[in-house]
Amino acid sequence: MRLRDPLKFPIKGIFMWIFIFKKDDIKGVEILESESHKKKKRKAELKLFGTGLLYLLPALLLLTVFMFYPMIKTLYFSFFNVSGGGGVDDFVGLKHYKSLIVSAEFRQSMVATLKFVLYVVPGQIIVALFLALIASEKMKGMGFFRTVFSSTLGVSVAAGATIWLFLFHPSLGGVNQILGYLGIENIEWLTSSKLALLSIAITTVWMQIGINFIILLAGIQNISQEMYESAEIDGAGYWSRLFNITIPLLSPVLFFVFIIAIIGSFQTFGQIDLLTSGGPNNSTNLIVYSIYQQAFSYGHFGFASAQALVLFVIILLVTVFQFVIGERRVHYQ
Questions:
Q1: Which of these, 144, 65, 71, 46, lies nearest to 308 by C-alpha position?
Q2: Residue 88 in contact with residue 73, Cβ under 8 Å?
Q3: Considering only Cβ atoms within 10 Å of each terminal Cβ, which end of the chain, N or C, has fewer?
Q4: How confident is the model at residue 9 (pLDDT cuts 50, 70, 90)?
């Protein structure tokens, strides 16, 4: 087979080499343009990130001053003896935490706190859900009842506690007067070690009805009416629709309400301070009120800081447990 002489085809060879070099040049240009585009995109992202941080700066400053700094300071104080003026005296290590373990008062406070949580959380969720189900019905005048059910949202802790202080009065309180008409003797609601914690739980449930009612009502109204109509066509009754449609589709809202209810119950302070001041016999001395007493009544800031950190860890663990275990039963649409 005879080989072709490339010199006989100079024009074709020249065009081939031009095409090869041109192709390489195009690839180089594309690489440069790609790198330039990446740099511009990176600059745009950094600019956008800086703009976002600028908008977040006021919130970050507030969180730093009122949340992050106090948390760090509390952790620091828990390892020292702290004087009344906030001055650090000497390093004691884990002494305050060891004192918590052997403290009978702290154990009593923890037991009272757990009982209070068990009283308040189911109570406020059940009552708020019941009222939300009533208010979701399409009836005349329901707007008035929605306003009444949510009215506690506008009542401060101090005002609400004062109202119930009069209602629980042994001789002049409205609760005992109603019970008197039923032939029941006056009950020492706030001065009895057995009933004081329950009385504060009732007060707290009443205070929290408003916000929980609004959240649950919004969740119920967000459920598609087509599902109820389809269930009615299939012959499903009210209870069947409630437990097979309303509750499952409301589970994300219930999960959220459950979390904030538990956190709020652990942090209860105002009504205890106004109604019982931790008494009688420390039966209502919940952990937050115990922290307040140790720090501002007894001047034990280091010991109170250790209690505060223990409370933080407990709330954190309970919340994580809820997300790990409870969220499995949540039905997201």
A1: 71
A2: no
A3: N
A4: very low
> Do 306 and 172 reside in the same domain of the chain?
yes
Please give the Cα distance from 266 to 260 (Å, whole number).
Answer: 10
- In the Cβ-directed half-sphere of 85, how many Cα atoms lie within 13 Å? 2
Q: Rg of the chain's alpha carbons, rounded to an integer? A: 33
| Type of residue found at 214 | I
- Rounded to whole angstroms, how far apart are CA atoms 271 and 116? 13
User: Two tokens at 47?
Assistant: 């600019």
Same domain flag for 143 and 192: yes
| Count of CA atoms in the C-beta half-sphere (13 A) of 303 | 22
d(CA 238, CA 222) in angstroms, rounded, equals 18
Check if the beta carbon of residue 236 is closer than 8 Å to that of residue 296. no
Residue 6, CB half-sphere, CA atoms under 13 Å: how many? 5
* Residues with Cβ within 8 Å of residue 51, at least 6 apart in sequence: none
Is residue 184 domain-shared with residue 297, that is, in the same domain? yes
Closest among 157, 215, 190 to 276, alpha carbons compared: 190
The first and second tokens of residue 79, run together, are 């390892």
Q: Which residues in the chain belong to E strands, given as ranges?
A: 80-82, 88-91
pTM, 2 dp: 0.81
Mean pLDDT for the stretch of residues 80-99: 83
Cα separation, 247 vs 76, in Å, equals: 45
Q: Is residue 32 part of a domain?
A: yes
Q: What is the pLDDT of residues 124-168, one digit of tens each?
A: 999 999 999 999 888 887 888 888 888 888 889 999 999 999 999
In the numeric block, which tokens belong to residue 330? 């949540």
Angle at CA of residue 301, ends 295 and 302, nearest 5°: 145
Q: Which of 34, 59, 109 is nearest to 279 (CA)?
A: 109
Give, in order, the Cα–Cα distances in Å from 248 to each of 2, 196, 275, 323, 330.
85, 36, 38, 17, 7
Where in the sequence is the domain holding 19, given as residue range(s)?
Answer: 6-59
